Amino acid sequence: MKNKNDPEKVIEDFLSNESASLNEGFTESLLVDIEKLDLENKSVSRGVHYFIPFASIGVAFCALLFIIPLFDLEVTVDNQENVALEPNSLPSYLNDSEKIIIEDLMAIPEELNVPESFLSEQTYDLLVLLDS
Amino acid sequence: MQSVPNPLLSHGTLLEMSENQDRENCLLSDDQLLMKEVGEKCPVAMEKIITRWKDGLFRFFDRSLQNKADAEDLTQKVFIRVYQSASRYQPKAKFSTYLFTIARNLLIDEIKKSNRQQISSYSDELIQGQIVQPTNEAQEWNEILNFAMKEIPEYYSTALLLRVQRELSYMEIADIMKVSESSVKTWIHRARTHLRKTLQEYRK
Q1: B55 interaction partners in chain A (CB closer than 8 Å)
Q2: Which range of residues forms the domain containing residue A70?
Q3: Topology classification of domain B12-116
Q4: Closest residue of B to A19, CA-based?
Q5: With contact defined as beta carbons under 8 Å apart, do B148 and B195 qualify?
Q6: What is the mean pLDDT of residues A12-27?
Q7: Whether the predicted interface score ipTM is above 0.90
Q8: Between A130 and B116, the higher pLDDT residue
Q9: What is the rounded average pLDDT of the residues A124-129?
Q10: φ and ψ at B10, to 5 degrees?
Q11: Shared-domain flag, residues A43 and A75
Q12: A16 to chain B: nearest residue by CA?
């Protein structure tokens, strides 16, 4: 049996630290803390769940705001391309002067496609010129 | 979350599955089973784990930090971390290995955070009056050994404490500390030698 003054025994006793213990209420207070932590986590995750529908609606709205101007831009570019291509498709039997007049006509904005716009005097003059 | 039995599974298949589960559970230790329950947010299981391990952890931290308040704080932090990670817990190693890996990580964080100073010597502190003159021999040895513990690196004392307090094998300590078994043996030997030497010096 080891003497209590034996250095090995002293070191073993010191290291094992058997006399140290926590206070009585440690477990209870820790369980209360854990419960609180659980409730906090639940409220945070609930908050996140409430936020998800609003966030997705917001994202969709932003996406729409971003996509719509792009679509408009594409349409405009398409129209410009059409206007630019049409003079090239004019028949070869037309004179240069006639081609210029037709190109001028085509350069007039969209309203010319509406029958009412042909009622203007300027249009009649152009048609007469074409006929002559 | 409770698992809902699939109505398409036959009675035989369900029986087989439950037998497999039972067999799996038989292989798990008591603590590992408790951890499974903690993962399902069972407060009773958590209470059992705390009751079973609190003193062991506290003694480990108390000897490592030599401060009862910090030791209590860290013990609490370990259990909170255990609770938070219980749902992801995989019973690959012994529960004690898992628990003391968390404990050691927290201990290292605490040492870094508090930037603990290495104290020159026990006699210096005594002369400066920073410690109370011990009233008996046992108390004096404890103070001397406390100072000796402060003089060794954290990994020496951790390895030694896990060996003496928890009676863990060298392999288990190596697992916790993520080092080789031979390193653990060396550290424990050096730590013991240092404590023995310090004690002998003051007893002369």
Answers
A1: 20-22
A2: 25-89
A3: Rna Polymerase Sigma Factor; Chain: A (1.10.1740)
A4: B59
A5: yes
A6: 91
A7: no
A8: A130
A9: 82
A10: -75, 165
A11: yes
A12: B165
Picking from B86, B72, B78, the residue whose alpha carbon sits closest to that of residue B32 is B86
Which residue in this structure is represented by tokens 């081609």?
A: A99
Q: What are the tokens at B132?
A: 């109370």
pTM score above 0.90: no
Give tens-digit pLDDT for B137-162: 778 888 899 989 999 999 999 999 99
Question: Which residues from chain B sit within 8 angstroms of residue A23, using beta carbons?
Answer: 72
CATH dotted code for B118-204: 1.10.10.10
**Is B199 within 8 Å of A10 when comparing Cβ atoms?**
yes
pLDDT at position B181: 96
The whole-number pLDDT of residue B83 equals 94
Looking at the fold, whether A44 and A74 belong to one and the same domain comes out as yes
**Nearest residue to B59 (alpha-carbon basis) of A29, A15, A10, A11:** A15
Interface size, chain A vs chain B, as Cβ–Cβ contacts under 8 Å: 77
Chain B residue closest to A7 (CA)? B196
For residue B178, the Cα-to-chain-centroid distance in whole angstroms is 14
Q: Which residue has the higher pLDDT, A71 or B34?
A: B34
Alpha helices in B66-94 (DSSP H): 68-85
Average pLDDT over residues A84-95: 67
> For residue range B60-69, what is the model confidence (pLDDT) as tens digits?
999 999 899 9
Q: Measured between CA atoms, how close is A48 to chain B, in angstroms?
A: 19
* Cβ pair B89, B99 in contact under 8 A: no
How many whole angstroms separate alpha carbon B189 and alpha carbon B114?
A: 27
Q: Report yes or no: A8 at the B interface, CB cutoff 8 Å.
A: yes
What is the CA angle B27-B31-B35, rounded to 5? 100
